[in-house]
Amino acid sequence: MSCPFHRPAPSCASSTPVSLARYPQESWLLGSATAVARNGLEFFERCEQTAGIVRTRFLVKRVYVVTDPTAIADVLVNHPKSFVKPYLLRRMKVLFGNGLLTSSGEHWANYRHLVQPAFGAECMPAFLRLVRESTEEMLSSWCEGERRDGESHDGEGRDEDVRDVYPEIVDLCMKNVAQTMFGVYDEEMGSIVRALAATCHDLTHAVLNVGQLLPFHLPRQLKRRLKTELGALNHYLGRLIDQRINDLRRNEPPRRDFLGLLLSGGGEHGPPVSRQAVLDESVTMLLAGHETTASALAWSLYLLARHPKHADALADDLASRLQGEAPSMSDLEDLTSLRATLDETLRLYPPTHRIGRTVVSPVVVGGHKIPVGADVLVPQWAVHRSARWYDRPLDFLPERWTPAFRRSLPKFAYFPFSGGPRICVGTQLAYSEVAVILGMLAQRFRYSLCDETPLVPYEGLTLLPAGGHLRLKIKRRSMIPAVPNSTVSSHAAQLVYS
Prior knowledge:
By secondary structure, the chain is α+β, with helices and mostly antiparallel strands. The protein has one domain (about 85-350, about 415-495): CATH 1.10.630.10. It has helices at about 35-40, 40-50, 70-80, 85-90, 95, 105-115, 125-140, 165-180, 185-210, 220-250, 260-265, 275-305, 310-320, 330, 335-350, 380-385, 405-410, 425-445, 485-495, and strands at about 20, 55-60, 60-65, 85, 160-165, 355-360, 365, 370, 375-380, 445-450, 455-460, 465, 470-475. It has a six-stranded mixed β-sheet with strand order 1-2-3-9-6-4. Strand 7 and strand 8 form a beta hairpin. Helix 10 packs across helix 12. The protein is globular. The two termini are about 25 Å apart.
């Protein structure tokens, strides 16, 4: 079964070369390195407004920023073997080892094939059941007699609350991933992963801009943190791996989860997987898996808080269809209001907001030869906010996502989960997880901002709220649509969801 929210259209090369230009106002010494260091997101926007392909340099490193959909297809789909992961990710093997995120070539292809069944459609019903249960558990404390800090309120429920929802969302997504991938989650794992994820964000932010241009040296404090926290996670996951290995030695059948598939090594058809390789893949999936969904959920709630009319229309539509229940697998296909809201969130705030590649063999991108050794950057952030493809591109407009608009949009004008053979292995599970959780949160609570100051994105491993906090005022909804049930669907369609 394909992802219920995305049906990729085929991409095709164009015979007309894509526009190519140099980055304006380059420094003769640093190139555009200072612009990247000052604000990487604005740098990408400037490139998109300049040309479909912008040629620049970071110090002595040749860089091409690609924002035209045809040229993006050349990078991600048409010539993937001409590229490897960029310098930054290759050096991030200190954190992720030789896992799916950092590896290339035959090694990547073998492991991708091995773990793909753990993310397949047959796993979806059990996964979404877990998601619904864990979300219900989280929501049981919202607007009740106890705050997140444990302060008592005489056991009486409240209709309103103020919460920092981002840490709770991160914990929720972490729990979902851990239980699905490894069959276990406890506070020891949660504490370790929270600390390591914070270090990983800081590490990525520190080297993402100017740091990627220079020899890769970790700041000493980050290096100490990374060594301690990665060691703790490796020790914890190592215990799980050893326990599973002992089970296999006792001839117990391997589990069909992520860890079980890795340890089975593809059965009779694949080579055995080393313990270190299993550990590398486990760290990658645990960190990347929960941070992506947490980012998407956080920005969704932020946008709903900033746009109460859209939030009310979404809640009315969900309540009329679900009557307060969590969406099931069979519901997701038909919840077009939820699809529109989530697609618009991922357009404005894609968790993976830029893709990098390094050219390893001669290649033509958008009709232009790109030299071996150059870096190619593909920023979803700038493409998704382009006036070439979107009217009022900086506005939150779920109503734009009509069937006709979806058909007219070039394939790589919207690609929040990358594309081509290296599209996110967990796209189907991640999108469905976010949809189920958002469907529950949107119909049960109304959100408003504690501070009207716009929330600033932080370029870490994913695009997250600066400071790792999102404080919202939360008010319980009555679960009764604001308009009669018979007119909810047409009302929602007119307002935001056609």
